[in-house]
Design brief:
Layout lengths: L2 E2 L6 E2 L3 H19 L5 E10 L4 E13 L3 E3 L5 H7 L2 H22 L7 E3 L4 H4 L4 H7 L1
Length: 138
């Protein structure tokens, strides 16, 4: 860990800092191939109408099944994905997967049933040209 000196702009290096940097670089490298390896998973949190006592939708939650680190929550990798640009293909994968699942679930639900899937999209993805077209096409 860094030791703070008198001058707030000065940080003394300690050996423990190197391991954290190597870990971040390794995680970023792994992110670039995680889609190819099919390591991302979507979990679904039910959204319940408390008055009607029924499930009305679900929220799609991204997780990464890292081959060494195990199941990682978004706070452990999303910032790196955004900085490296990997967030764009990951978000496309999420949208495509959710749309396929929505179509499957629609077939299984009774006709006329209202059910929705909520997806959190990163600002960077929404700012891309063609974002709406990609989302509609999925």
């Amino acid at each position: 860990m860094a030791k703070r000196q008198q001058n707030p702009l000065t940080v003394a290096y300690t050996p423990g800092m190197g391991g954290a940097a190597v870990s971040l670089v390794s995680l970023e490298a792994d992110l670039h191939i995680a889609l190819e390896r099919n390591e991302f998973r979507l979990l679904f949190q039910p959204i319940v109408d408390l008055r009607g006592h029924r499930v009305v939708g679900t929220e799609a939650l991204l997780r990464w099944r890292h081959p060494v680190e195990g199941l990682l929550a978004p706070n452990e990798f999303l910032a790196i994905a955004e900085e490296s640009g990997v967030i764009v293909p990951v978000t496309r994968w999420i949208i495509e997967r959710v749309c396929r699942l929505a179509a499957e679930w629609r077939k299984r639900l009774p006709q006329g049933t209202n059910f929705y899937i909520s997806v959190n999209l990163p600002r960077r993805y929404c700012a891309l040209r063609g974002y709406a077209t990609t989302s509609r096409a999925s």
